[in-house]
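Thread: flavin-adenine dinucleotide complex, take 2
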Amino acid sequence: MDFFFDALIVGSGLAGLRAALEIPADYKVGLISKVFPTRSHSGAAQGGIGAALGNEEPDSWEWHMYDTVKGGDYLTDQDAAETLASDAPRAVYELEHMGVPFNRTAEGKIAQRAFGGHTRDFGEGPVKRACYAADRTGRVVLDTLYGKALEKKVHIFSEYYMLDLIFSQRKAVGAVVYELATGNVHAVWSKTILIATGGYGRVFKTNSNCFTNTGDGVYFCFRNGIPLEDMEFVQFHPTGIYPLGVLLSEAARGEGGVLINGLGTRFMPEYAPTLQDLAPRDVVSRAISTEIRAGRGINGGDYVHLDLTHLGASRIEEKLSDISSFARIYLGIDSTSQPIPVTPTCHYMMGGIPTDLNGRVVGLDGSVITGLYAAGESACVSVHGANRLGTNSLLDLVVFGRRAGKAISEDSKGLESPQPIEGSAVDVVEKIRRIKNSKGKKAAGIRAGMQQAMTDTCSVFRNKEDMEKGLDEIRRIKGDYQSVSIDNKGDKFNTDLLEAMELESLLGLAEVILVSALNRTESRGAHYREDYPERDDQNWLKHSLATSSPDGPAISFKPVKITRFEPKARKF
Ligand SMILES: Cc1cc2nc3c(=O)[nH]c(=O)nc-3n(C[C@H](O)[C@H](O)[C@H](O)COP(=O)(O)OP(=O)(O)OC[C@H]3O[C@@H](n4cnc5c(N)ncnc54)[C@H](O)[C@@H]3O)c2cc1C
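Output below.
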């Protein structure tokens, strides 16, 4: 069946929903999501959304901008950081007016807490900037925006999977979509298409992401000739529950939790004398990995402890209740009396589909791709540079999601409805047939091999030798994938088939991450090369762009936008 829209949004996380709310009611808006909208990963966000409201102590958006630039190790485009930080207070008050139930101060203002890398007075010490609703901030914002989208009568396709993008003469015109309940394949045509499909942390074995974070929108852009920006920058969050990787938010340290090594010592003051346990994530993850490598993990093992015991039961219950219940459910640990074992976990992708400040996707030649937009974790504005600060993603979603929605509203007026193109879904239908008939290796085994290879060779510490091994392995696994097979041959609710389809995106992006990481011979933010341990501004103060070619991803570059803050050595 064919569907027609003025605006098609793929992804019902906060980026997609915020964009949808910005598009006027007389536009036909379609919203596609793999999962029921409120199950999107945005709902898992725990710690908060950053904005210099100054409700708890003095703050300014210029300090927030500075932290975002410095936290991103100066790879952040500063016009984007300025937009993010200066628009943040408006964005948070807008959420409040929509009905988001934030925690409150005694005077009834939105409560705020400290978070990694957020400082007062350009780096002088931690500041309380994260607005939060206990440790389930994403949940309440997602539920609120979903309610608004229902009021607005956005046409929602829940449990529909985009399996390809359709282009006509360098214009995005539609998507091929699979209906989970029936197995039917549809074409959806639209004047404009927003990719808001989120991250792809599932590329790694230990990760904090939900099952749906497989990077489909990002990979489909790459497959269709659109470059991907800064893909080597993968964030490892310091405190994943050991050994599962499930996240324990930085809010735990924002509320006063500390990291302890196997000698019973607080080690962060040695690595970051000013911010200590609240240094940016790249710094804390490297510190934990360094302690573990030096044999100072707990009992010499590959984890350290997150200690909340001194916070007291009532504070933990009131501010960190989800976190303490995770410790109880997954490990049987009572966080009021016992420390929690933690280890770095793949958490967030700084790289993605390159866009301008209004969500318009930018091609290799620097010009905009007509009809195509990206926002949220799938996009690279680039506002997070080489390392995102905690609470800046939720903010990115609502600030740049809104701007993308505005751009779509303006641009759609001047665009014709696309004419359906015969045979657009043929490739997808053929791929489904091939997978169902194949007798090759099973998808689960192929995925496990990919995740292991990425975790072993391209994690917190990287070097040429390991990454070359990793790349060989991923290319070999891609060979196995050509004949991937599945057990379920049915049409209805065939998640086996869809997981096999998603694996193509994960494998494609794993290769792009490795090639980009091998190429960048310096250390910056989350990308740490043991063989090139220094940041090298002379040669590498530039964004990388990976474009699909017959020989694999090809790398080119574009300049970083520097407006207010000249690059300096980072000290925390
Ligand atoms: C555990 C956890 C805690 C976090 N805590 C915080 C925090 O406290 N503060 C903060 O700022 N950030 C936090 N983050 C980061 C932040 O939550 C994410 O970066 C952000 O939610 C991504 O939002 P999004 O709208 O881009 O995509 P998502 O919310 O991930 O949504 C993606 C959407 O795309 C859809 N989709 C994907 N592929 C397809 C396809 N092929 N077809 C159809 N639909 C598709 C999915 O169904 C989903 O609706 C956290 C992340 C995690 C994992």
